[in-house]
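Lay summary. Proteins are chains of building blocks that fold into shapes, and those shapes determine what they do. In this project we predict the shape from the chain. Here is one chain we studied, written as its sequence of building blocks.
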Amino acid sequence: MSSTNTTPVPVPRPETIHFWEGCKVGEFRLQKCNSCGKIIFYPRAICTECMSQDLSWIKSTGKGQVYTFSIHFRGATPAFKTPYVVALVDLEEGVRVMTNIINCDVNDVKIGMNVKVTFESLTDEISLPKFEPV
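And here is the predicted shape, written in a compact code that computers can read:
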């Protein structure tokens, strides 16, 4: 980062590259264990259920519900425009994702709110998944 006003950009690792490639083309991708069938998020090298390394990728519907959230009025750096919402979203596929809720007033976010994924382009290679009301 060259400036305190720059949004931090994730650095893909071997186990996350397919996830970031998906985000770049507007797909929220999840891992699936080919041994036990568990759906996995965040991307890893092994299954958290059976420890298998036989993992594949599936495209999520990108739909879910807000499990819980908090409204932040002070960002970690000036790059974080306040106020913003940090939420845990339960996806239809059965995984829970930490994310931001955007495109609505922070006071309108509610537990149980239906949301869908959207993407914010940071660079030519990295787009961040965030969620917005349905």
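What the prediction tells us: Residues 67 and 127 are 23 Å apart (CA to CA).
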